Amino acid sequence: MDNELRQKIDSKCKLKRIGRGTESFSYSVEFSKDADGLVKITADKSEFTYQLKELRELYAPEKDSLFELNWDDEYYISLLNTIESGIRYIDSSNTGLTDTKVIFSLEELVSKPDSKIDDIIVREINQRLRFQLSTSDYTRKEVRRALNKILRSVKRHNRTGGARGYLDFIRNFIP
């Protein structure tokens, strides 16, 4: 976690009621297309830019956990959504994307989550993970397991739905 970024967000944002007994911060994040890891955060009539730390600096310490992760837990759903929203974003701006390209990129990330290869999917997922891990405590193992879970999903949807089976699937669920 990046405590400096958390403190900046906390100082710029006000808690807002989003439901009965639930409060949350409201802000938007825009990733720079030109500078790796540079984000603009807009909240409550103020904004600031911030250079995200590298992924390897943001992992939480490993936990002794032999149990299976509960993928229905909001904590892990948030991590899965971070990864899939990166894939969805690239798909919406790249008309030639196929599941095979997503599989290649995810296989690279599963083996090396902090990879910096010149691949638009890897780059987008990396930036989104860097922001997510700046504000949440996920271990490297949890990130790799989430990437692997999505990789298995891509392969499964590709087998049953064809060249864009997974991409067509997430188009219906990820805005």
Write the layout of secondary structure elements.
Blueprint: H1 3-12, E1 16-19, E2 22-24, E3 28-31, E4 38-43, E5 46-51, H2 55-58, H3 74-93, H4 99-111, H5 120-135, H6 140-161, H7 165-171
Antiparallel strand pairs: 1-2, 3-4, 4-5
Key features of this structure:
5 strands; 13% strand; 175 residues; 7 helices; two-stranded antiparallel sheet; alpha+beta; globular
Overall number of domains: 2
- Unreliable residue runs: none
Order of helices and strands: HEEEEEHHHHHH
Strand order of the largest sheet: 3-4-5
Radius of gyration: 17 Å
Number of discrete helical segments: 7
Q: Overall mean pLDDT score?
A: 90
Name the shape in a single word: globular
Number of strands: 5
How helical, in percent, are the residues?
Answer: 40-55%
Intertermini distance? 26 Å
Query: Could you give a short account of the major beta sheet?
Result: 3 strands, antiparallel
The structure class reads alpha+beta
Percentage beta strand: 5-15%
Description:
This protein has 175 residues and is an alpha+beta fold. The protein has 2 domains: 1-52, no CATH class; 60-175, no CATH class. Helix content is 53%, strand content 13%. It has helices spanning 3-12, 55-58, 74-93, 99-111, 120-135, 140-161, 165-171, and strands at residues 16-19, 22-24, 28-31, 38-43, 46-51. It has a 3-stranded antiparallel beta sheet, with helices on one face. It has a two-stranded antiparallel ribbon with strand order 1-2. The mean pLDDT is 90.
